[in-house]
Amino acid sequence: MKICIAQIRPYKGNIAANTKAHLGFIELAVFLQADAIFFPELSLTCYEPELAFALATEQEALQLRPFQRISDSSHIAIGLGLPVKSLTGVQIGMVIFRPGQPRLTYSKQQLHTDEYPYFEPGSGQLILQLAGKKIAPAICYESLQPAHAENAFNMGAQIYLASVAKSASGVTKARQYYPEVAGKYAMPVLMANSIGFCDNFLSVGNSAVWSKTGVLLGQLDQDTEGILVFDTETEEVVQQLV
To answer: Which residues contact 100 (CB under 8 A, 6 or more apart)?
Structure first.
C-alpha cells in the first residue's frame, strides 16, 4: 500500500481556493499511484479557530462532492481537515472519502486548552481499514499524548497518521516523540503539517515519515509545498515538491 501525506499552504477561510489546491495534490498522488492521501489539520479552511463556527459543515455537504468523485474515479482514499458540526457544537474533524463507500469522519478527541472556546472534543477512535492496513488518525495536540497512541495500538492500529498544524516548537516535540511511538509499537508514524500563518502562529511544515523502528525515512522542508509517498511494504518514501 502507498500512503501519501500532503504539505500545503492553505488559504485562510477560503474553502473554494483550498478545494482547488487539494484536488491538485490528489491528482499528483494518483499519478504517483498512491492508494490514499491525507492532509493537515483543518486543511480545507486553514487552522483558524475564530472562523470555525462560520465555516463548519457536515461530512455529506454538497461542497465536498468533488472529493467523493475523484475518490471514486481514481480509486484513492482521501482524508482532509475541516470544522464539522455536531449536535451541540463544532469539532475539529477529518472527513474521509473512500472509493464507492460512505464517508467517515474522525474528530479530535483531546483538545488543547486554547481550543475549548471554539471546539468540543470528539468521542471515540476511528481505525480506518484500507488495503488490508489499519490506520489510526490523530489530530495535532492529541498525537503528542501517550494515551492516544496506546489506545490506537490496543485497537489494532498498524499505522499512526498525525494530521497537524504545528509551529516550530510543536515540530520539535514531534521529532522527539513520534520516533518513540513508532519504536514502542512497531508502527510507522506519518505527520502531515501545513506551512504558512495559521491563527496566531507560523506553521512550519517538516512533514515526515518514520519507520516502524523509529527511523526517519523522509521529510519535507519548512516552507515548500509537496507530498511524501510511503510504501508500507518496502518502507520506501518518494518525495515530490509542488
So the answer is: 72
